[in-house]
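Structure tokens
________________
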Amino acid sequence: ELLANVTLPSGKEQVINVKIPAGVDSGTTLRLAGMGEDQIPGQPRGDIHMTINVLPHPIFQRHGEDLVTEAHVPIWTAILGGTISIKTIDGKEYDMTVPEGTQFGTTLAMQGAGMPRMNGGGIRGRLLVKLNVTIPNNLTDAQKQMVKAASQA
């Protein structure tokens, strides 16, 4: 819910409580019936039409009902496979399986962890996770020898 200050055409200011539907996107216009101008005697109040502007999120980018984010994956997990911890937009944390041999830039999808569909009865989009493989830059000499030996096998 959102409290908004609205200036009516008559210049009268009013505070309204607006319930923003889950999954609303920028450009959506909400009709607030009977909350508008009340200056004409004997006539019902008018409506307010409010256009929504959704601000960008610092971690997730929105593509319709899908959300896109990035995750850093250690090179060893990318090579051998494993799991990484992913946090969704609503703060829940999940383990995501990284398949063996995953390449830099691979995108994995988590169904039902994206944005809710507006008026969609609880249906949610996907969370798309782009994997950035991280390569260590501080290997010991012994670790470097192991990598060399593995690459020549």
Notes: The first strand starts at residue 2 and ends at 7. The two ends are 60 Å apart (CA to CA). The first helix runs from residue 75 to 80.
